[in-house]
Amino acid sequence: MPLLSELKNLPVYTKSGKHLGHIVEIEFDPTSQLIVRYQVSRWPTLPGFWPGRLLIAREQVISISKTAMVVEDLTAEAKAVPEATLAAS
Q1: Closest Cα partner for 24 from 83, 89, 88?
Q2: What pTM was computed for the model?
Q3: How confident is the model at residue 42, as a pLDDT?
Q4: Are the beta carbons of 55 and 71 closer than 8 angstroms?
Q5: How many C-beta atoms surround the C-beta of residue 64 within 10 A?
Q6: Residues 22 and 40 sit within 8 Å (Cβ to Cβ)
Q7: Which of 19, 35, 59, 89 sits at a 20 to 30 Å CA gap from 29?
């Protein structure tokens, strides 16, 4: 199992092999001390290239290794969230 410090910038792929980007932030629940979701963005981030981050719930994660995180294939429920929305939360 990778260390928390190793998760930042870890590449993220779907089960079918599509590259989604890299982990840029990890959100924790302070009460349970569990990861709630991962924020994924293209890396390096290019202004105007991808105007948001993809939020991946821990339930969507299939596996995490020291080389990559694999998640369920995207559905209509998964969507990019504008960075302005993330800054406000």
Answers
A1: 83
A2: 0.72
A3: 72
A4: no
A5: 20
A6: yes
A7: 19
Positive/negative CA dihedral, 64, 69, 74, 77: positive
pLDDT over 90 (residue 38): yes
Helix (H, G, I), strand (E, B) or coil at 60: helix
- The residues, ordered by sequence, that sit 6+ positions from 38 with a Cβ below 8 Å of its Cβ are 7, 12, 23, 25, 26, 27, 55, 56, 58, 61, 69
Which pair of structure tokens corresponds to residue 81?
Answer: 């969230």
Six-digit token string for 74: 């995207």
Helix (H) or strand (E) segment spanning residue 78: none
Spatial distance between the Cα atoms of 84 and 65, rounded to a whole number of angstroms: 30
How far is 8 from 23, CA to CA, in rounded Å? Answer: 5
The pairing of beta strand 69-71 with beta strand 11-14: parallel
